[in-house]
Specification:
Layout lengths: L7 E7 L8 E7 L7 E11 L1 H7 L16 E9 L11 E5 L8 E5 L3 E3 L6 H5 L2 H14 L7 E5 L4 H12 L3 E6 L2 H10 L3 E4 L5 H8 L5 E6 L5 H8 E9 L12 H6 L3 E4 L7 H14 L1 H5 L7 E6 L3 H10 L5 E5 L1
Parallel strand pairs: 8-9, 8-11, 9-10, 11-12, 12-13, 14-15
Antiparallel strand pairs: 1-2, 3-4, 3-6, 3-15, 4-5, 5-7
Helix pairs in contact: 3-4, 3-9, 6-7
Organism: Novosphingobium rhizovicinum
Keywords: NADP, Oxidoreductase
Protein name: NAD(P)H-quinone oxidoreductase
Length: about 325
């Protein structure tokens, strides 16, 4: 299939740091896969909060990554690099990528690709990798979550939040989420949350205490940080774990370390994009074993919000920044 691959492709570039209008279509060379890599003809690309931050100049691409935005894709393998024995031309895959997803073709590490079953539409496949890798690693690997435990998730109707609800329920957890409206709380419960707190109308610390009969939760998945951190800690049971994956409310927090010691809290967090490919391959392997069977049998599906054509990436970012979306936004290529 090599001779059918064009020299140039349409992609979305970031002209300069700024608002959605800096996302502009352009013509760039089609990349070629190196050892251990595959070239994917992109069908859909997921839109994620890190894309917005990159566009704003707050989250630059790693030195060895494409400067184009886009951290997850679905599509068809059209070229295979040296040493790749697991994938062939024509394979339907979705993949976590370090950049370059907003384009007609994208390089993916073969070890970070997951097979797309026939029952999974490609728009949904593109909506899985970023949130699935992030939630799995932070809730189950770093947060040590086990069945029977209770988890508090902020931003319950975001892409991360909806995935956290579904994975938590898939693995036997009680899930409490916070949302910014009664409508979003209702939607979160429909997705599977056991409890949804409207943080604009109620104090989530008091509500968590009420819901758990004062025991608190075992795990907080936090994407707000800032002044939420001390409030989150008040929600934790003894030996609770606080896992930070974003700092939308500010990077600095005041923490009562005496409470951390006396109640044996664990405070941790991570970012996924800068991690080496070797780590992401191991994570993909773990997900393929532990979670992907639930994708293949139809038990796990992403919550979809909206799809935009690739050339309307700016509108997709506006949709995300407006905060009205529930679940995942994707670009159709």
């Amino acid at each position: 299939m090599q001779d059918t691959i064009p020299e140039m492709m349409t992609a979305i570039a970031i002209e300069a740091p700024g608002g959605p209008d800096v996302l502009v279509p352009c013509e760039v060379p089609v990349p070629r896969p190196g050892p251990g890599e595959v070239l994917v003809k992109v069908a859909f690309a997921g839109v994620n909060r890190p894309d917005v931050l990159q566009r704003q100049g707050q989250y630059p691409a790693p030195p060895d990554a494409s400067p184009l935005p886009g951290l997850e894709i679905s599509g068809t393998v059209v070229s295979v690099g040296a040493g790749v024995g697991t994938l062939q031309d024509g394979a339907r895959v979705c993949a976590l990528v370090a950049g370059g997803g907003y384009a007609e073709y994208c390089i993916a590490d073969a070890g970070q690709c997951l097979p797309v079953p026939d029952s999974l539409p490609l728009d949904q496949a593109a909506a899985l990798p970023e949130t699935l890798f992030t939630v799995w690693h932070n809730v189950f690997d770093r947060g040590w979550a086990i069945d029977g435990e209770t988890m508090l998730v902020h931003g319950g109707t975001s892409g991360i939040g909806t995935m956290a609800i579904m994975l938590g329920k898939l693995f036997g957890m009680t899930v409490i989420v916070t949302c910014g409206s009664a409508a979003k709380c209702k939607r979160a419960r429909e997705i599977g949350a056991d409890h949804a707190i409207n943080y604009k109308e109620s104090d989530f610390v008091a509500e968590v205490a009420r819901i758990t009969d004062g025991k608190g939760v075992n795990l907080v998945l936090d994407m707000i940080s800032g002044d939420y951190v001390p409030r989150n800690l008040k929600c934790l049971a003894e030996d609770g774990r606080h896992v930070t994956i974003a700092v939308l409310g500010g990077a600095k927090a005041h923490v009562n370390m005496a409470a951390v010691m006396s109640r044996r809290y664990v405070l941790t967090g991570s970012t996924l994009r800068p991690r080496p490919a070797s780590f992401k391959r191991l994570l993909a392997r773990e997900i393929a074993t532990e979670v992907w069977p639930s994708v293949e049998n139809g038990e796990l599906r992403p919550v979809m919000d909206a799809s935009f054509p690739l050339t309307r990436a700016a509108d997709a970012h506006r949709r995300m920044e407006a905060g009205d979306h529930v679940g995942k936004i994707v670009l159709e290529v």
